[in-house]
Amino acid sequence: MGSRSPRDDGRRAAARAAGVAAALIAGSLFCLFIALVVQSTSTSGGGGGGVREERGAVYSAAVAVVSGLHPSNDLLHIGTLFPVFNLTVHVEVPPGGGGKAGGVCLGGHSVAAIVSYDGAFLGEGSVGRICVEPQQQEGAVAATAWGRDVWMPWVLRKRLAEEMERGEAELDVAVPMRGGDVLVCKAKIGGDLSPCTLEEASN
């Protein structure tokens, strides 16, 4: 039996190297595939999927001042504020919307809406639980928010008073949702329902 030539040894070494490279490439592609599957599963709303279940709905809100925020009697007087607000949060679920269970819920035990103006806290109040099924299409929940001894920078008090006198004042309303997101609304005082957005809670 003849001895192997250096050329044959070189070919075998090259073949082994090519095989190893092919195996490494195949392994890398498999790992990438697994990673993509895991990522897709984690963002598909499985295991409760609170945020995605809420996104099939359309939200809006309205706010009205009951007392404690009169432009001249309260805002332009020295002292803390004691405002009271009436809030309405409206939910509309399109046909086929909602989560896996079919409905969309918000509010409930320990859920409080926060009212603010340009970042200045004005009041908060509990939001009763409401669930809207696709066949119902829409529903609304009312809440009362209030503040006690609320301090507000003078520049904001003056601006808010001027906007209220012109009928242009808008307040921010935030309602925590399932999954850690927050329903954020900017509603004109005494106006009609204004659209809300579902945003990720800041860390």
TrEMBL record:
Organism: Oryza punctata
Residues spanning the membrane: 20-38
Superkingdom: Eukaryota
Alphabetical keyword list: Membrane, Transmembrane, Transmembrane helix
Protein name according to UniProt: Late embryogenesis abundant protein LEA-2 subgroup domain-containing protein
